[in-house]
């Protein structure tokens, strides 16, 4: 039985400019998306700006959402992440990457989800599957992928952060993503 | 090299494009290809599907009220909700939460469970002697009370309905059953008999993934004059559930 809120249906209604469905979607998804934005942008006022711009985009583009191609959260997360990176690149001073404190709880949350899935039922099935596969990667691979995903880090940013040669970083990430794909594809089939 | 014919290279580029490590001129070339290749677009969407759940592992934080207030102002939402004739969708939207809650609590509702069983017994037995319903839907009113039970027997292409609470339908009115796709206009499945029952051939479209919602509306005797949707009020709504 579907325990998740009916995001697809709300998006379909929002495409028809249903303001109530928009409010429902906002209430159901904004805490997750705002938490994600705070991770990327650190500063609250920037995260609020990005959240607002993202929902303007969601309102304006709901009619181009294609339910057979992407899950609603996937579609919205792409919008939110793009807005966040746009804002990030417009900043004069770069946001400090403090990898030790910064991403540890993201990695811990994934590990805890993989170990005790029943305590993390608020996560989507996709997130639970990802946690199981992600935690099978080497620690360095996990860190490198999270740095790129959350902080728009380039290969050379990651090499500097993890004090590894850039060629090694490229190889690590490529293999990590490949293992992730194989693991997630296998998980889908079971 | 033609990357479109090289699956592993395509995967690799789509992955680093989504992750963000594909940069500069390579990224721009990739974007040009992406705009012209449905295959590449599908690869990118698959990678978004794989990687975007990473976002869920950030600690959720409720944004301050002012974000919603600013959204309301900048999109002028209050004017939109007053002016547009969206009561049909709003009605559905209100009801879906109720119908989900109803199904979560189904185990407790023994009289309804009995109704489900009774209905299953009415159905034509399959080869093994058991009925083979594939989908059921409980349609509820605006107070989330169950009113109509639908069973789709996919194997025998039959749609059966059973009304659970008798309705006051005037002699010049009918109840009409609709399948509502995620996009596009609702499609009529037929009129309910006066006693609320119905047994119809099950059209293929009625049970596809694309159908977000089933609804019953109050209509003139011969149904809605508008082929694209109800003309009268929507009384009950619900969604297919696999059983």
Structural commentary:
The complex is a heterodimer of chains A (190) and B (243). By secondary structure, chain A is an all-alpha fold. Chain A folds into two domains: 84 residues, Rna Polymerase Sigma Factor, Chain: A (Orthogonal Bundle); 91 residues, Arc Repressor Mutant, subunit A. Helices cover 74% and strands 0% of the residues of chain A. Chain A has ten helices and no strands. In chain A, helix 1 packs across helix 2, helix 2 runs antiparallel to helix 3 and helix 2 crosses helix 4. The longest helix of chain A has 24 residues. Chain A is globular and about 50 Å long. The model of chain A has no long low-confidence stretch (mean pLDDT 89). Chain B has 243 residues and is α+β, with helices and mostly antiparallel strands. Chain B has two domains: 55 residues, no CATH class; 156 residues, no CATH class. Helix content of chain B is 37%, strand content 23%. In chain B, the strands form two sheets. In chain B, strands 6-3-2-1-9 form a five-stranded antiparallel beta sheet. A four-stranded antiparallel beta sheet of chain B has the order 5-4-7-8. In chain B, helix 2 crosses helix 3. The interface between A and B is large, with 77 and 57 residues.
Summarize the structure.
The complex is a heterodimer of chains A (190) and B (243). With 190 residues, chain A is mostly helical. Chain A has two domains: 7-90, RNA polymerase sigma factor, region 2, helix turn helix motif (Rna Polymerase Sigma Factor, Chain: A), CATH 1.10.1740.10; 99-189, Winged helix-like DNA-binding domain superfamily/Winged helix DNA-binding domain (Arc Repressor Mutant, subunit A, Orthogonal Bundle), CATH 1.10.10.10.
